[in-house]
User: What shape does this take?
Amino acid sequence: MKRLLFFLSILLLPIVLMVWVNAVGGSPSHERQEQRCTRYCHDKGCVHHKRQLDSESSNWTLFLHELYQQNIQLLKHNPFGLGYAEMNILIYVILFPLIISLLSWGLIRKRK
Assistant: This one.
């Protein structure tokens, strides 16, 4: 019973974090704003981040920025013919948590 409660708390933590972020964050906007990132940055590319990249020019930061951009493009142009939102939900809301849950449960069951 103790393991099951531990496992359920691990599963609920990301959901609680997601609800908190959605409650604290402002309402989504597709308009470009100079002060902060909006969904415009996600759709068209972030000018805020590009300015930061130019000033920092760290190889690690550039790598992460490129990885993020490739992730968006892969989700938009996937081999299944699904839209970006559907692929995002399929991978990051269903598939990854399912895999992490199964692996976590396997670790918790083996632990004595």
Observations:
- Residues 2-110 form one domain.
